[in-house]
Automatic annotation (TrEMBL):
This is Acyl-CoA reductase-like NAD-dependent aldehyde dehydrogenase. Signal peptide: none annotated. InterPro entries: Ald_DH/histidinol_DH, Ald_DH_C, Ald_DH_CS_GLU, Ald_DH_N, Aldehyde_DH_dom. Its EC number is 1.2.1.-. It comes from Lysinibacillus parviboronicapiens. Residues 9-458 form the Aldehyde dehydrogenase domain. The keyword Transmembrane helix does not apply. Belongs to the aldehyde dehydrogenase family. It comes from the Bacteria. The keyword RNA-binding does not apply.
Amino acid sequence: MTTIIREMREQFNPAKPSECIGQIELFTLDETKAVVARAQKAFEGWKNTSSIARGEILRVTADLLEQNSEKVAEMASREMGKTKGEMLGEVKRGASILRYFAQEGMRATGEVLPSTSEAKVLYTKRVPLGVVAAITPWNFPVAIPLWKIAPALVYGNTVVWKPSIEAALTGKLIGELFEQAGMPKNVLNVVQGRGSKVGQVLLEAPEVRAITFTGSNGVGQSILNTAGPTNKKIQLELGGKNAAIILADANINRAARLTIEGAMKQTGQRCTATSRVYVEEAVYEEILEHLIIEAKKIEVGVTMGPVSSKGQYDAILSAIEQAKSDGAELVLGGCPTKDKSEGYYIDPTIFTNVTHNMAIAREEIFGPVLAVMKVKDYEEAIRLSNDSEFGLSASIYTNNIQKAFDFIERSEVGLVQVNDETGGAEPQAPFGGMKNSSTGAREQGQAAKEFFTVFKTITIGTQSI
Ligand code: UN1
C-alpha cells in the first residue's frame, strides 16, 4: 500500500487571527480523481434506490443537524467569522432545506401525456444525471452546500462536494452528519482543497455530468472556460450589486432599518446584500439620518462579526480607499474597528456623494459598505438601479401600489422585494439572478429539479400486432 502524503492546512479564527482552530488535510489530485471514479461506480446503486429511501436519509440528516446545531454553528462561526447567532439561524435553515428535499422523494417524477395514436402510451420520467460536482463558498457554509447537495441526492445523483477551503472544517462536519444518517459509501463525497487544484480536477473529470457553483464572477468565468466547451450541465450563482429604492411615501423607519439590515447582516458578505440605495430627494436628508442611526446600533464584535479572512479585509478596505479617492463622501465608518491582529473587523460604512460611474456604485464589495444616492424621482431610481451588469436582487420601499407593481415588472433581477430587504431565500422558492449574476438555472424549490434531472420520454406500443 502506498501512503498518500497530503498537504495540511491550518484554519485560523478571523475574530482572533492568532488562534488556530484546527487543521485540514488537502486531497491530492490523484485522490480526487479516485473519489470521482468511486462516485461514478456508486451511481448505479443509488439511482436504483427508491427515491423515498433517498429522501429518508436527508430527513435523518436534518434531525442530526438540529441535534448538533450548537457544534456546527460554533465551528462555522470560528472558521469564517459569522456571529454564532447568525450561524444558528443558518443551521436551522439548513435543516429545513433538507426536510423540503426529503419530501421530494415522494413526489411525481413524470407525467402521462396524450398520444396521437390510441395504441400508444406516452409518458415522461425524470432521471438523474450521474456524478454532480458541488463547489461552494464560505459565506453560507451550511445552507448553500445543502441546497445543492440535497436536491442532487434525492433525485438520484451521486455528489462530489468541494467546500471552500475557508470553510473546510465545517464542510467535513456536515459530511460526517450525512454519513451518520446512513448515506451509503461513495454517494456523497467531500473533497478538500483549493479551487485551482482539486476544483480543477472536478471540472475536467469526464465522469462529472454537472457542476453547481456559487461564488465570484472571476471563478465562474474560469469554470465556463474549462467546462463550458464540454457537455456538462453548468449552474453558476455569482455576484450582485443589489439596489434598494426608497420613495418619499415609504415607511421611513422600516425602510432605513431593513436597508441597513440588508447591507450589514453577515458583515455584508452575502451576494444578496443591499449595496446601493437610491433615495427620493424629498426624503433624502431624513433617510440618511435614519440610516446612520440604524447603522450605529450595530455592535461590531457582538451583533456583527469580522470579515472572513485577511484577503477579504484587505479587499474591502481598498474598495473604501478607492471610493474616497473617487470623491465619495464617507459619512460613517470606513476603517478597521481594531488592529487587524485582534480580528478582521471593519466598521459599518456609509458613503454619500456617490456618482453612478464610481466603482463603489458598480462593483460588488462583499463587505459592510453602503452607497447612498439621491434621485429626483422613481423613474431615475429604476433607471439607475437597472443600469448594472448584475441582476440578482432589488428592493423598493413604497406604499404606492402602482409603483410597486411597476418595479416588479421593470426590475431586471431574479429576486424582487417590496418593502423588504434584498437578501433572504426560502427552500420552496426558486433562487437566482439575471444578467451576470447567474447562468439562469435556478436553485431550490421545484426549479432545482430542472437542473439535477433530465427527462426520458417513453413511448409504449400497446397493440400486439
Ligand atoms: C440569503 O440572502 O439569505 O452567496 C442567501 C450568497 C447567496 C445566498 C444568499 N448565494 O450570498
